[in-house]
Structure prediction request, 134 residues.
Amino acid sequence: MQTNASDRERARLAGERAIRVLEHTGQQLKDMNRYGFGEMFFGGFLAGGRHARQSNEAKNAMKKALDAVEAFRDLLDRQWLPEQQWLDLGEFIRFTQHFIEQPMAEWTARSRIDDARIQAGIAAERIKKILGNL
Prediction:
């Protein structure tokens, strides 16, 4: 497949957008995970309601991150990348799809949200590396 500068530019712009969305998602997940165990369980109705709202916000942020990474990957020509970088993006996509599809039980939410935050940061770094290779 013959590629031109505009193909690479579209991929670069999509990659930069994906990085911004991933970094924003990571920050939202970090903010959500600030709540301590005691506040989640013993903070009463208000803390529980706030945590439920933030859980939904985290899930929505992950959906946006997934969309941004998939849009970036769709614009990439596989020939531009080493195979491992292609597989790394697929790994984030699979993780995120699983995260979104599974219900967040209160007693596991902190570790799952921390895992998602870490994965978002890893994906952002991987995309930065890919952009550097474009």
